[in-house]
Amino acid sequence: xxxxxxxxxxxxxxxxxxxxxxxxxxxxxxxxxxxxxxxxxxxxxxxxxxxxxxxxxxxxxxxxxxxxxxxxxxxxxxxxxxxxxxxxxxxx
Amino acid sequence: xxxxxxxxxxxxxxxxxxxxxxxxxxxxxxxxxxxxxxxxxxxxxxxxxxxxxxxxxxxxxxxxxxxxxxxxxxxxxxxxxxxxxxxxxxxxxxxxxxxxxxxxxxxxxxxxxxxxxxxxxxxxxxxxxxxxxxxxxxxxxxxxxxxxxxxxxxxxxxxxxxxxxxxxxxxxxxxxxxxxxxxxxxxxxxxxxxxxxxxxxxxxxxxxxxxxxxxxxxxxxxxxxxxxxxxxxxxxxxxxxxxxxxxxxxxxxxxxxxxxxxxxxxxxxxxxxxxxxxxxxxxxxxxxxxxxxxxxxxxxxxxxxxxxxxxxxxxxxxxxxxxxxxxxxxxxxxxxxxxxxxxxxxxxxxxxxxxxxxxxxxxxxxxxxxxxxxxxxxxxxxxxxxxxxxxxxxxxxxxxxxxxxxxxxxxxxxxxxxxxxxxxxx
Lengths: 92, 426
Prior knowledge:
Chain A is an alpha+beta fold. Chain A contains 2 helices and 6 strands; from the N terminus they run βββαββαβ. Chain A has helices spanning 32-47, 73-82; strands spanning 2-5, 11-18, 21-28, 54-59, 63-69, 88-91. In chain A, 25% of the residues are buried. In chain B, helix 1 (3-21) runs antiparallel to helix 2 (26-39). Chain B has helices at 3-21, 26-39, 45-51, 54-71, 75-86, 91-108, 111-129, 134-148, 156-164, 170-196, 204-211, 222-241, 249-264, 267-274, 278-296, 299-311, 315-332, 335-351, 358-371, 380-391, 398-425. At the A-B interface, strand 4 of A face helix 7 of B. Chain B: Its main location: membrane. Chain B: It is a multi-pass membrane protein.
C-alpha cells in the first residue's frame, strides 16, 4: 500500500473510500502556485484516454474535491508527489 | 444499359457492401472505389475533380478548426456546469439541460465533436451525483442527431444538400427545419423524463456539492476564449448573411477559421490542423467521385425515371417515400453515401417534370439526419458515445439503445411527415 506525508502548513488532504472510488478533499493553504500545480495534474488526467480515472471538482477558496478510481489511486498519489505537493511517498 | 454503366453500378455496390460489412475502413474503400472509377475510365480525372464538392469540404474543415481551438478553452465545461447549477443540482433537470445544450451545440457544430465535448462533463457530473450516466448519454446521442438537423451546418447530409442546391441557404434551412426540430425536442423532453426520471435519483448532499462548485475555474484560457467567442459569433453571423453577401458557406467557415488562427498565432496552427478529421474529408472525396461514376454513366437518371414511374410523379407519395426510406436506411447504414446518391437523383426528378423539389429536399434532410437515431450504428456520434461509455464500464448495447432509439426515431419521422404534409403539400 502506498502511504504519503505532506506539509500541513501548505496543504490539507483528507481521503475516504466511497464505493469503487477514493474521494479526496484537498485544501491548498499556500500561494497560487500550488493551485497551478494541482491544475497541471488535472490537465494530465483529463488529457489521457480514460475519462473517469481522476475527476476534479473545483470549489472557491482553493478547495478541491477529487474522485479517484481505485485502480488509479497510485497514479494520482504519484502525480501529487511528482508535482511536489507531497513530501514523501513509500510502500508499506 | 451501357457497358460502363454496369461497371459503375458494380463498383458502387461492391464498395457499398464492403462499407456496410465494416471489415475495412470506409475511407479506404471510398477512395479505392473512386480511384477504380478513374482508372477504368468511367470518369476521367478532370470530371472526377469537378464532382468533388469543395464547398462541403471547406465548410467541414473550417468548422473543425474553429471548434478544435474553442474546445481548448474549457467553454463547454463551463456551460455544462453553469447549466447543472441552474438546474439546482437536480439530476432530471440536469439531464434535460445537458440534452438541450447538446441539441443547440449540434445545430452549429459537428455532432461527433459535440458529443466528444459533452461526454467527459457528463461523466464528471454524474459521478459527483453518484448516478448512472447512461440515461444522460442516450438523451445526448438523440439530441445531437435531432439538433444537427436544424441548420445547414449541423449535419453532413444538410451540408451536402445545402451545397448542391444553391437556393437552399442557411436561412432557408433554419426557416424550414428548425420549427420541426423544436417540436421534436419538445416532444422528447416529457418522454425522456418519463423513461429515465426514476433511474437517476440522487441524494440532496450530492446535489448541494454541485451547487457549491466554482464554474469559472472551468475556463482554462480566458484570452483565447474571448478570441474564439468573437470569431465564432462573427462566423455564425456570416452564415446568416451568406446569401446577402454572395458568399458560399465554405468561404464563411474558412474565413472564420483563418481569422482565428491569425488571432491565436502560429503555436495554435499545428493543434488546429490536428483537429481536422482528414479521414472524414477523404471519405467525402471518395464518395463524390463514386457517385460521379453513377451520374456520368446515366445510372442516376435511370433511377430517377424509375422512382417517378413508381410514385406517378405525385409529390406527396414521393416526399413520404424519400422521408421514410431515408430514415430507415440511415438507421442502419451510413447516411452520407445515401445522401450523396439521392442528391443527383432528386435533381434529375426536377428535370423530369417534378416542379416543386423543396418538400423532397426537406424530406431527405429530415429522414437522413433523424434516421440516425434509430439504432446504435445509425450515426457516428452514437458509436462514439457508446464506445466511450463502454470503455468506462457503462456499456450501451445495440439492443439497449434500440429499445429507446427506434421508437423515438419513428416518433420524430411521424412528426416530420405531418409537418411536411401540412407545410408543403396541403
